[in-house]
Write a structure and sequence with these properties.
mainly alpha; 0% strand
């Protein structure tokens, strides 16, 4: 059985996936929040806390804005 993480065909499929692309963009946003909040507190808050904060406070408005932008670009 091959390891999907190392299979070149699987990697190509992932790179073309719009779902994976959206996941990567969302992960980038979480990492930006992690950096900002870590700078504010003077210590690394960790990815899990940043994920929780981002999901609670920012995810829904961010996704709504992304969907609006996509619908404008798609027209």
């Amino acid at each position: 059985m091959s390891d999907l993480g190392r299979d070149p065909e699987s990697i190509k499929i992932l790179q073309r996936s719009s779902v994976f692309h959206e996941f990567q963009i969302e992960k980038h946003e979480i990492n930006k929040l992690k950096w900002l909040e870590s700078e504010k507190t003077g210590r690394d808050i960790g990815y899990e806390k940043a994920l929780f904060l981002w999901a609670r406070a920012h995810r829904n408005p961010w996704r709504a804005a992304r969907l609006r932008l996509k619908s404008k670009v798609g027209k």
